[in-house]
Amino acid sequence: xxxxxxxxxxxxxxxxxxxxxxxxxxxxxxxxxxxxxxxxxxxxxxxxxxxxxxxxxxxxxxxxxxxxxxxxxxxxxxxxxxxxxxxxxxxxxxxxxxxxxxxxxxxxxxxxxxxxxxxxxxxxxxxxxxxxxxxxxxxxxxxxxxxxxxxxxxxxxxxxxxxxxxxxxxxxxxxxxxxxxxxxxxxxxxxxxxxxxxxxxxxxxxxxxxxxxxxxxxxxxxxxxxxxxxxxxxxxxxxxxxxxxxxxxxxxxxxxxxxxxxxxxxxxxxxxxxxxxxxxxxxxx
Length: 285
Prior knowledge:
With 285 residues, the protein is α/β, with parallel strands linked by helices. Helix content is 45%, strand content 26%.
């Protein structure tokens, strides 16, 4: 059997994790002397904490956790497939690779495959779910990994920050871009390509930015057939509900609302909105 592992920045629904038998390794957030596992924090409480204590740091799971999980799976006679957030955004994948080398010294016949999703949030989540569904169908490791690569080519993540303060503080986009944006009241629509955050388009108002995201979704539904939509938000549930309603008026595709947790949230900031979706046809080669 193949056991699928991912990290907490996939923000998968608990029921999906249970139904598809997915293992989650948690990243952490650090407020000076206090460290918390992301999966143990309630999102609303975390954002209130950030209001009072400032922007914390994030960190990947320690190597020992990877070793422990890999070994427990291998001892049961199973293979490991890990799909993690972009290696350009976090050291999580590199730590997993180091843990793999350590485990293989003791279990040289074990199979441990690790993949870079080149994204995060539900764009990562879609890839993980694709892998887990392929496992349920009894596919080989090669076929399961191909399901991940296929989903990477058929998914997109667009998001709009409410403020550029958090991106600037975390260095997730160039500081010059953040400064220019704040001076000119420009709101960037951001996306993730080749594992990095990039600017899809710049507009003057957040409302306009959300409309542009929906327009892009409509266009890709016509050309590539959108199969599933996630509306992401960071502590902005009511705004997410409005965005989901506007999407459903334009695109007849199942749409769910999922909030984004602390690790990605501290880099993008409260009030951010996003759309993650995947299509039948490839969006990129």
